[in-house]
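[Meeting: bench + compute handoff]

Bench side (C.D.) handed over the final construct sequence. Compute side (W.E.) agreed to return the predicted structure before the next meeting so the bench team could plan truncations. Sequence as handed over:
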Amino acid sequence: MASHSGHISSDKRFLIFFDFDETIVDETSDDMVVQAAPGQHLPGWLKDTYQPGRYNEYMQRVLAYLAEQGVTESDIRSTMEKMPSTPGMLTLFQFLRNRPPQDFEVVLVSDANTYFIESWLRRAGARQLFHRIFSNPATFNKDGRLVMKPFHSHDCPRCPDNMCKQVIVRDYVARRTQERGRPYQRIFYVGDGANDFCPAVALGPRDVAFPRRDFPMHRLITETHEGMPGEFKAVTAPWVSAEEVVQRLRKLVAE
């Protein structure tokens, strides 16, 4: 499910991908939604149904439980809207917004879901910044339950069953390059998690990976440099505050 805002012009110089949980927001939205549950916790029997690699199916059960407990759409939306942004992220959004329109094509790739993401972005006034959002589709059914489906299936052994971000990134870049008739000058990827390492492996030597410092994506890049030199090609620029991303981008767009 890719939600989007209008036609994208073909003159963009740069393509920048963002993760959502713990990258844009300083929380994991799937954990945050539990605050909408009675007593702000889930029963043990429900937690015990989780199986590694099957997190999407587990979250479908969590959302069904919330609906059974009388949790409404507005309860879930207001819980999502409360999530704080990561340090400097709103400054980064402002920087991207203020650049000439031909500079950045901005895409979000997340294993959360479209409802959580759109709720937060609209509240933050940042929805229009994103040309595409790739996430697990989620909509409320007539019974008032938020129903989430897996984004796709794939063959990547590294990633959860419902989403490989490298497949999404590769397909998107290939399709857009064909539509545009030329490649981007550079591609950037801002993330934090192990599932952000996989798409960053697909970046080339002119591209920049922005892993959140000391989070799993950063550790995996460091381990790869040590264990398999040359395997990870992109320039790596770790960040604690997204203002560091702004500083790096400001230099690169001026080249």
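W.E. noted at the follow-up: The longest strand covers residues 104-113. C.D. will use this when planning the next construct.
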